Amino acid sequence: MEDAVRELEGLLERAREGGARGCEILREASKGVSLTVHRGASRDAQEFVSGTMSVRVWLQGGRSGHAVGGLDGGGALVAEALSQASGAEPDPQAGPVDQLARAARGGLGIDDRRYGGLSMDDRMEVVGDIERSVRNVDARLTASDISWCDSRTRRTYVSSRGARFDEHSTLYEGAVTVAGVVGTERVVATEAVASRSFASLASVPYAANLARVVASVLADGPTLDSGPIRVVLAPTATARLIERLAEGFDSDDLAKGEHFLLVDGAPLPVHPHIHMLDDGQAPGGLRTYGFDDRGVLPRPITLIKEGRVDEGLLGLRASRRLGGDPTGHWFGGRTRPSNVSLRAGTRSINAHTAEIGGTFLLLEHLPDLTEALDLKTGRFDCTVSGVVLQGKHPAGVVRNRRLQGDLGEVLAKVVTLCSNTDRIRHVDAPGIILDGFSLV
């Protein structure tokens, strides 16, 4: 820790000599390996090193400057930030965070001690057999866009208020696209998985699991007419929905009423069993950190409490303007959800569908919902493929059909939350049964 902190402290002193009344510096350095796979062999395998440094300074009256650049240009970044600040307007809400607490050290489970000993053979054991594993599920399936990336990152933060934070973290990521053809129809699904530990990612047959999902909708069988349909989301699909939903909880957006769960500034009540949490220090979480980019320690918050919007993600400047403490979610120049979880039910999907009876559409996979779910209006419009259930038994398929609904109404019509749960990237999600959707 001392070498990086000493370097940044020298830059702090240079900023003071230049007239800065306040300064904070964040240094991030990563090294890792990336590769793609084709026919069981690695392609484009390369080691990489990357890094950035961010310097913020404040002059008299809160005039601020911010410069970002490479790791070896600290002095030039200080000078650039000071130059910006000299021509800036006064800002009474500016300045480093008023927080001298120590960031959590150890216990976060985000630095895999095995990382330094990994070989290319270790990596290929995870991804080298993906194409074969997909074909073994169903000969009609193909795997493509197989990639792997791992890295170890060191983040160091210092400020003129006395904060000195330093942490290491590891990240492992894998991705694959699985496609299948039946008749004239083609079904495609992409999965991107990630973990803080190599063992966790290596133990999950994510490509074969995705292949089974795609194969299930290639089966022969009747389909559904257009119209309302009761939908069962498996945990993987629920996680995709919750991931997108959580992106709309920036406090500034909530204060402006720019969220479909707010009407005239008041929370729109949905089903009281919807309880969504965000915890930036969950042990081993994909988005667990000891501190955010402004040196704020993450604190757990309740995004939705018993069906109503509760708290939002609060950056440092917004916290000073709106009142309250920053929540520690500032990354890359914006607020970002950390580890999100949705409270689960007590009985399984099978138990609920068998007891309720009737027709369901089971969705085990959803694509990226950035365009499919409008967080301001709640409008949901997504192309899906899934299995038709009668009770708990498969009775048909739906392929490449549009599923539409108003998510505010859908979340108000939750039939039940299920006990089936899984951690998908940074989301812990259960299965859920919903009304309010329609097939087009």
Write the layout of secondary structure elements.
Elements lengths: L1 H16 L4 E17 L2 E18 L5 E6 L4 H13 L33 H8 L2 H8 L3 E19 L4 E19 L2 E11 L2 H5 L3 H11 L10 E7 L1 H12 L4 H5 L6 E2 L2 E2 L8 E3 L22 E5 L2 E2 L6 H7 L7 E2 L2 E2 L4 E3 L6 H8 L2 E5 L15 E12 L2 E14 H6 L1 E11 L2 E13 L1
Parallel strand pairs: 7-16, 15-20
Antiparallel strand pairs: 1-2, 1-4, 2-3, 4-5, 5-6, 7-20, 8-9, 10-11, 10-15, 11-12, 13-14, 16-17, 17-18, 18-20, 19-20
Helix pairs in contact: 1-2, 4-6
What does this structure look like?
This protein is an alpha+beta fold and 440 residues long. Helices cover 22% and strands 39% of the residues. It contains 11 helices and 20 strands. The chain has helices at 2-17, 74-86, 120-127, 130-137, 198-202, 206-216, 235-246, 251-255, 316-322, 349-356, 407-412; strands at 22-38, 41-58, 64-69, 141-159, 164-182, 185-195, 227-233, 262-263, 266-267, 276-278, 301-305, 308-309, 330-331, 334-335, 340-342, 359-363, 379-390, 393-406, 414-424, 427-439. The strands form 4 sheets. It has a 6-stranded antiparallel β-sheet. A 5-stranded mixed β-barrel has the order 7-16-17-18-20. It has a two-stranded antiparallel ribbon with strand order 8-9. A hairpin with a 2-residue loop joins strand 11 (301-305) and strand 12 (308-309). The longest helix has 16 residues, at 2-17. The radius of gyration is 24 Å and the shape is globular. The chain starts with a helix and ends with a strand. The model has no long low-confidence stretch (mean pLDDT 92).
